[in-house]
Each structure stands twice: as structure tokens, then as C-alpha cells.
Specification:
The chain has 726 residues and is mainly β. The protein is 14% helix and 37% strand. The strands form ten sheets. It has an eight-stranded mixed beta sheet with strand order 36-37-39-38-40-41-42-43, sandwiched between helices. Strands 13, 14, 15, 18 and 19 form a five-stranded antiparallel beta sheet that branches. It starts with 23 loop residues before the first helix and ends with a helix.
Length: 726
């Protein structure tokens, strides 16, 4: 939900060498210390068969090349970069902690880098041959959402809700000056970042026109978030459109940086629609926009005149009985400015379609039942494009390449597991980083034709000799409708004895766009999962229908009745556990956060005789309290689907609660607002049901940083109290 990773883990230095269990601090800060050896920020150098990356200290940019048999060589050090910055800007102060890990190649001889000075953020071009800064452009540090032109002549950025542009000479132009904070310009937080929205501004290829979102949310209800830190508590107001209520209104505006003129795209009645997949035409004359109705079941892909804003034509339309969810902008072919690639799951799996700019479908480029996860680069001649595709019932990731003319697709990696791979510029070599359940990490350079590989990294198990490594296995089950294989992950306690009986922590999420179990190192398990197994629990997780990477029918099975088919599938995992003699059926607990908190609470009400204890973090309790874009996609509006909202609401089922339930919520949660859990507490009081409740006053949807240790300790203690210490 909001694609927030529930177990985002930070890093810390740790001590100790004896084989032992993880401690609570390591559930949060341990993964970098015990991370498999890897390569950081690897990138193919343009027009070469050379690979750049950072060294282990993050102080130097190194490279390996086919021409020197992949021998490690230093390209540039952080110290050399700082010296060049000081020479170019003697009046500035730079304190780089590391070489910029988000470096990009400007061309084969120079790097594009973002660095912070005292008061400004700069983008610079560093020439590797001259060891000097060739170009500089910067803006005040207060500027957010920086969008740089490709010729490095201008930066557009946000200050609060308004856009400014600074040019290479330092001249600042104010593009918008809306004093009403309810008018938000250029923000990537448009439509609450659903529909794949990651940007709020786009420069045209000619670098003279800026396209941006103009969001009007003045009509959206204000929602209070109490701030407890001031001596007298204050209210922070946010805009939070709940399902069925008035949503924001959005336009797209083109600003001509040469003339200062603005035009608004004529996208029609903007009060009940979403604008996404925004793409400039290579010529800069046209703009393409996916216009999605509020019901999210009809998408019109439209073409607009960038000079006048006029609607030109609808290229094609996509409809569904469930929902249409555009996630990506168009990708124009480098050799054909009138052809583009479009991603859609309209035929069951997210795949590529080749269209021309008149809306004619030229060719379907999908391959079998492969789900396209990440579109990569065109080949040097522009005739092929590569991508990472999901295989093996959602468990694996492989590298594919498709010929744009013939449509022929070739799979370039083969070992079962998760491949993060990319092709060199000429397509002769593959950089392949790979892991599976029992393989921590292997990185190699492969020759495409011969298949021969040069191993750069073969990581050992980072726990060996230090941390007890619980046994992890995959479990293959079948969905409740009998149609789909489901994969579960079971983690066993240390020194597991099948003759003994163990308590269970059943960890789940289950919501859209999620996957908790995959064929990578540790099977995708978080360190808290490992910790609980080391404490003597069977830890089980499974992905149900409704989750990602299995095709359209799989994840739309939850439409209008969230939680129902998800629970039906999870019951198959529960049946599996109950069939095992080593599972103590009287000591089973369940834990989930966000959508997983909704699932956890749902189980304690709908199937209240299974789990003795539960922890629900940031739970949705009634979908009428959730936001429009996400909530209405899966549930429609409360007015359209009253039966579904009644069935999935947990407020009217509080009297069914059995067992012990701990609800944890962030008081500043802008995603699942605290009203959800507060209303449930009130329902439990009225029903005479006891509930445990804990609030993190300064945290939002996730409890982060050092406070996360406190949270995990509370969860572990809760399960120990009710499942173990009896």
C-alpha cells in the first residue's frame, strides 16, 4: 500500500564474532553488516565494454573492462573530485562523505554528478581525461524535485507549491506564484503517486518547454494530524480524499521558457479523472497523456498539441470490468520517432505493444506468460530492447531481449533465481547479479554468444561463523479456487526437532503490488522473521491472490471485496501448518502491517478460532476511511459497492474478536489515518472486547530509525507473553 516496503532496513556497525542469534538491534540495523558481498552502483560505460562501480569504501569510482581481462582499475577518487570542485568553485564548500553513488555517464569520457555545496545543490560534468569540472549548474538547496534539461542549461525545481527555473548563468525565473497552498504545481505527489507517477515536471527534448502538473486540492477535505511535540499540541492539516468523497482536480500546463507563455492541455472535465503516463513526443510538438476515468475502468490514451494545448486525437482506448492501471510513460523508438512502446496487462500479463503515433497497433511484443517488470535499454543500433521479466510463477527474474522488427524474444539468463542484469552497449556482454534461496550473491560478466562467464563476486554466507542461520524452505500450495500455485516460505527454529511442538508467527501482507516470497537470498525474509525463528517460532509467509507478478486474473480476483479471497488463500497456508505435527495449534500468532494489518485484524474477526495472538500495524479497518485513488480502484465507491464495504468493514464485526490483539499505529500516519484504529477501539469498547493499543507519537505509516527496535521488541514481547511464556 503506497508500495511502502514494510521492512525497510537500515545499517549499523556491529561487534562480536561468536555464532549466536540476532539481537533486536540487528533486526533493524543488521542487514548491511551481514549483507552478502556485492558491487555497488555498477553501470556500463557508454560505447564500451567497460563496467564502472564504487569500491567497498565508497571513496573511489573503479572500472573493469573486456580489453584488460576485467582487471580492476581506478577511474577517479572522491579526493580528486573534491579538488576539481574546489578549483571550479573556489568560494564554495564541499564535504563529500563518499563518491556520489547516483553518478550517471554523460558520455564515454565524462560523468554527470549531483553534489551539495553550502547553500546550493549542483549538477556538474566531470571530465575524466582533464580531471576537471566542465560544466556547472546549481539551485538553492531548498529547491525540491529538481528537473534538469538534457543540455544542462536549466533546472526546474519546487519551493513549497511553486515552480522556479534557474539557468546556467544563475538567473532565476518564477514560473508559478500561487499563494493558496491548495494549488500545488509540479509535484510528484499528484494523485497520491498512484498510476506509476514519479514525476511532476517534464522538459521537452528541445529543452525550452516545461510540462507540469497543476493540482487543485482546495475542494478536498482537510484532515487533522495532531502534533504532540509542541508545549501546546498543534494540528497539521493534510488533504485526504476518502473513498466516495471529492477528489483533487488536476491539469497539465506547458510553460515556454523562451516566451514565458503558458498553455493548458485540453484534457476535458478534470474534476473526475486522473492524468498519467505523461510523455513528450521526440519532436516536442505533441504530448501524450493517459486520461483515466475516476472509476478507473476506462483509459483513453490521448495526443495533444504542445503549442496550443489542443486535443488532437485518442490513439486507443483500454477498458476492463475490474480496473485499468497505467503504470508507465511511452518509450519512443530511437530509430522511428513515429513509433513507441506501450506497456499494458490488457491481455493478461504486463507486456510490450508497439504502436505508431496515429494509434495503430504495429506489433505485440509480449512473450508467453512473462510479466515485464523493468524495461531496460535499446541496443546500440536501436533494433532491440531488453527487459527484466518475471518467470516461474512469480518467483524468478530473468533478462530478455526482443527484436523490435521480428518480435522474436530471447531469454539471456537462465539460472532459477533473481537476476539483476543488463547488456553492454554493443550487446556482447551481460552484467548479471544473481541470487536464489541458498545463494547469497553471484556477480559475473557473461559473453552473450558463448555463454562463458567471468565471475566478479561469489559471496559467502554472511552469517557463517557469526549468526545462527535458520533453515528456510519454500512450500508449494494451491489457491482456494484451485487455479493457481502459491508459494509459501517457512523458517524453522534453531536446532529444529520435528518431534517437538513450536509456536507460530504467521507474517502476511497480501495487498496489491506486493510480493513477500521470491527466489532470492533468504527467500525474501526480513531480519525480524529470522529473529523470531531463532527465538523458537515457526515463521510462515505466503503470497495470495491479489498480490503482484502473476498476471491480471490473479491480482484482480479481489475486486470489490478486499480481504475475502486473500483470506481464503491464506487459509490454505494455515491448513498446511496445522497438518504438521511440529506446529502447536494452540500457540499460533499472526502479524501484518498496513494491508497486512487489515488482513491480521480480519482474521481475528472472520476466522477467530485460529490465532491466539495478533499484532496489526497501521491497519485499514474500513475502506471508507481510505483514500480515493487506491481504495476506489479495488473497491469502487461506497455508493457503488455498499455490500462490499459492509462485508470488508471490521467495525461491524468487533463483537467477533477472540484472542489477544495488539494494534500499533503512527500518530502522524498520512496513509492509513489513525481514525481507522480509533474507530475500531470504540467498536470494541461497545462490544465489550479488550484490545491492546500502542501509539508512536512522532511516526507516520512506518516506525523508522532507532524507534523501530522498540517496535520489534514490543511485538516479540507480545507474542512471547501470549504464545510462549505460558
Amino acid at each position: 500500500m503506497k508500495r511502502i516496503a514494510l521492512f525497510f532496513l537500515l545499517a549499523s556497525a556491529l561487534t562480536g564474532h561468536a555464532q549466536r542469534n540476532l539481537n533486536l538491534e540487528e533486526t533493524v540495523f543488521g542487514p548491511r553488516t551481514y549483507a552478502p558481498t556485492s558491487i555497488t552502483a555498477a553501470s556500463w560505460i557508454p560505447k564500451s565494454n567497460s563496467l564502472s562501480y564504487l569500491d567497498k569504501s565508497y571513496q573511489n569510482l573503479l572500472y573493469k573492462s573486456a580489453t584488460n581481462n576485467w582487471t580492476e582499475t581506478t577511474l577517479v577518487s572522491k579526493a580528486a573530485l573534491e579538488a576539481a570542485l574546489k578549483t571550479a568553485m573556489p568560494n564554495e564548500t564541499f564535504n563529500l562523505r563518499m563518491f556520489p553513488y547516483d553518478y550517471k555517464w554523460h558520455d564515454g569520457n565524462s560523468l554527470l554528478l549531483q553534489v551539495d555545496g553550502k547553500d546550493k545543490t549542483y549538477t556538474v560534468v566531470y571530465n575524466l581525461k582533464s580531471k576537471s569540472i566542465e560544466r556547472v549548474i546549481g539551485n538553492d538547496k531548498q529547491g525540491a524535485n529538481r528537473e534538469l534539461t538534457t543540455d544542462l542549461s536549466k533546472i526546474a525545481y519546487l519551493v513549497d507549491n511553486n515552480i522556479s527555473i534557474v539557468d546556467k548563468n544563475g538567473k532565476v525565473t518564477v514560473v508559478t506564484n500561487d499563494s493558496d497552498k491548495g494549488i500545488v504545481n509540479g509535484s510528484d505527489y499528484t494523485h497520491r503517486q498512484e498510476f506509476g507517477i514519479k514525476k511532476g515536471m517534464w522538459w521537452n527534448p528541445q529543452n525550452d518547454k516545461l510540462l507540469y502538473y497543476r493540482k487543485n486540492e482546495t475542494m478536498v477535505a482537510n484532515y487533522p494530524l495532531p502534533q504532540w511535540s509542541p508545549e501546546v499540541a498543534e494540528i497539521k492539516w493534510i488533504k485526504y480524499p476518502m473513498t466516495g468523497q471529492k477528489s483533487e482536480e488536476v491539469n497539465l500546463v506547458v510553460y515556454n521558457s523562451t516566451t514565458g507563455q503558458k498553455v493548458t492541455l485540453q484534457t476535458g472535465d478534470h474534476s473526475e479523472q486522473y492524468l498519467t503516463s505523461v510523455t513528450w513526443d521526440p519532436s516536442g510538438k505533441f504530448i501524450y497523456v493517459g486520461v483515466l476515468n475516476r472509476g478507473q475502468n476506462d483509459l483513453k490514451f490521448n495526443k495533444y498539441n504542445a503549442e496550443t494545448g489542443a486535443f488532437v486525437k485518442t490513439l486507443f482506448e483500454e477498458s476492463a470490468t475490474t480496473w485499468v492501471e497505467p503504470e508507465n510513460p511511452l518509450t519512443f523508438l530511437p530509430n522511428s520517432a513515429d513509433q513507441f512502446l506501450y506497456q499494458s496487462d490488457k491481455e493478461g500479463y504486463n507486456q510490450l505493444y508497439l504502436y505508431n503515433t496515429e494509434g495503430k497497433l504495429i506489433k505485440k511484443l509480449g512473450f508467453k506468460d512473462i510479466v515485464l517488470e523493468n524495461l531496460l535499454d535499446f541496443s546500440a543500433d536501436g533494433n532491440n530492447i531488453s527487459y527484466i521479466g518475471v518467470t516461474n510463477n512469480g518467483m524468478d527474474r530473468q533478462l530478455f531481449q526482443v527484436d523490435l522488427k521480428s518480435g522474436k524474444t530471447v531469454q539471456l539468463t537462465n539460472e532459477s533465481g533473481i537476476h539483476q542484469a543488463s547488456l553492454s552497449a554493443d550487446g556482447k556482454y551481460i552484467y548479471d547479479q544473481y541470487s536464489d534461496l541458498k545463494t547469497p550473491n553471484i556477480i559475473q560478466i557473461k559473453e552473450v554468444k558463448s555463454g562463458k562467464g567471468t565471475v566478479l563476486v561469489k559471496a559467502d554466507n554472511p552469517f557463517s561463523g557469526k549468526i545462527n542461520n535458520p533453515k528456510i524452505e519454500f512450500v508449494q500450495l494451491t489457491s482456494a479456487d484451485g487455479k493457481y500455485p502459491l508459494t509459501g516460505r517457512i523458517i524453522y527454529p534453531n536446532d529444529f526437532d520435528p518431534a517437538k511442538k513450536y509456536p507460530v508467527m504467521y507474517y502476511l501482507y497480501g495487498g496489491s503490488h506486493s510480493q513477500l516470497v521470491s527466489n532470492k537470498w533468504l527467500g525474501g525474509a526480513g531480519y525480524f522473521d529470522l529473529y523470531m525463528a531463532q527465538q523458537g517460532y515457526i515463521v510462515f509467509t505466503m503470497d495470495n491472490r491479489g498480490t503482484n507478478y502473476r498476471g491480471r486474473d490473479f491480482y484482480t480476483a479481489t475486486h470489490r471485496n478486499l480481504g475475502q479471497n486473500e483470506m481464503a488463500d491464506q487459509l490454505k497456508g494455515i491448513e498446511f501448518l496445522k497438518s504438521k505435527p511440529f506446529v502447536d495449534q494452540q500457540r499460533m500468532g499472526i502479524f501484518g502491517w498496513s494491508f497486512g494489518g487489515f488482513m491480521t485484524t480480519s482474521f481475528m474477526l472472520h476466522h477467530n478460532d485460529i490465532f491466539k495472538a495478533a499484532v496489526a500495524g497501521g491497519p485499514v479497518i474500513d475502506w471508507k476511511f481510505y483514500e480515493v485513488m487506491y481504495g476506489e480502484r479495488y473497491m469502487d465507491t461506497p455508493q457503488e459497492n455498499p455490500e462490499g464495504y459492509k462485508l470488508t468493514s471490521l467495525l461491524n464485526k468487533a463483537d467477533q474478536l477472540k484472542g489477544r490483539l495488539l494494534i500499533i499505529h503512527g500518530a502522524q500516519d498520512p496513509v492509513v489515518v489513525q481514525q481507522n484504529s480509533m474507530e475500531f477501539l470504540e467498536a470494541c469498547i461497545k462490544a465489550g472486547k479488550q484490545v491492546d493499543y500502542f501509539l508512536y507519537p512522532t511516526h507516520e505509516h512506518n516506525v523508522m530509525g532507532k524507534d523501530r527496535i522498540h517496535m520489534y521488541e514490543k511485538i516479540a514481547d507480545y507474542f512471547n507473553q501470549h504464545l510462549k511464556n505460558k
